[in-house]
Request: fold
Amino acid sequence: DDDNVLHIGGIFPIRGEGGWQGGQACEPAANLALEDVNNRRDLLPGFKLKLHWNDSECEPGLGASVMYNLVYNQPQKLLLLAGCSTVCTTVAEAAKMWNLVVLCYGASSPALSDRNRFPTLFRTHPSATVHNPTRIKLMEKFGWSRVAILQQAEEVFISTVEDLEARCKVAGIEIVTRQSFLSEPTDAVRNLRRQDARIIVGLFYVVAARRVLCEVFKQGLYGKQYVWFFIGWYEDNWFEQNLERESIDCTAEQMRMAAEGHLTTEALMWNQNKEETTISKMTSEDFRLRLNEVLSKKYDIANKRYPEGYQEAPLAYDAVWSVALAFNKTMSKLLKHGKTLKNFTYTNKEIADEIYSAMNSTRFLGVSGGVAFSSQGDRIALTQIEQVINGSYVNLGYYDTQADNLTWANKERWIGGKVPRRDRTCPGPS
Ligand SMILES: CC1(C)CO[C@@H](CC(=O)O)CN1
Reply:
């Protein structure tokens, strides 16, 4: 009967390619976690966790109507899960009116790190700004104190660049120029050349990245005097794919030449070591195999390569565990006042505050690595650094921003055999 069921709402990107490549794997991953949580007798004793969900197609309007139906139909929900930055922004901005915590497993927009607009938001997906301390760390490691920025004019990159500029100022790194483009990068790349940019941080989606790379080839902004930072969550051989379909007028060979040696940064979403998670006693490898099993039956993404095909799945899995652990904490707090979570209503602020503070103190080892939130509800995550060496990505190391600890493999290779110089002693064309 309903008395022993705790209901939560979920909004997932399914149709329309799941919003971003891999979005479709989030709902199956969340359901795996529900299975594991409900198989535990010690987590929510006497209760089952039930997820009521629908498809947002990664569209904010559809996401809002899904939220409306979840909230205005019985049974009452205790919390909402959501993906996609656009959907999360809409849902998290409204959810406070029903005292609902919103837990986002697929939202990278820096704009979401704002307790004024989103007082009840938490996310297991790190903000795109998580790359920035890593970029600075690498600039300091290689002595690059004069850098340039090239970005696509999209909200997520605009706010990421603002954060990067602020951090560069603190670190004493000069931004010699910041160029942006809507979809055609030709002029922006030409301006980089005119300003003699050598170390360039590139922020754009993967289709724009291919256009940039071809332009970089054409204008010769690559080779031993240049270092490009690209985003690391594109498909592995992104710079050789879709050239015809996207009418990129460079050959795969030219794209490879321009891409050789570039660095990438990305947030780690799969726990790297073989440790078992503290809660589901699974390694990320075990999780991957279990999820492949489910996906091969469910969606046509079975043919996608793993885990690139769906790197965010661990974030959805760990989001459900975060909910179960937070409810466990809240239950024991409420029990002292003779209450349970079944007493929650959309107008009951004190129980909502208990759920919030339990979520706020989340700390466990999940499939996606250590799960903990900042005071803004942001996921605290490690980042991974790679470099294209002889046409494929090589892992150079990891950075733990919290501990300011860079684990370095010393595998980096520079065209021309030495680190490209870009500091005050060599300001520009001599
Ligand atoms: C790393 C990426 C691809 C960034 O965008 C996220 C989707 C979003 O922010 O809307 C999903 N994960």
Q: What stands out?
A: The two ends are 79 Å apart (CA to CA).
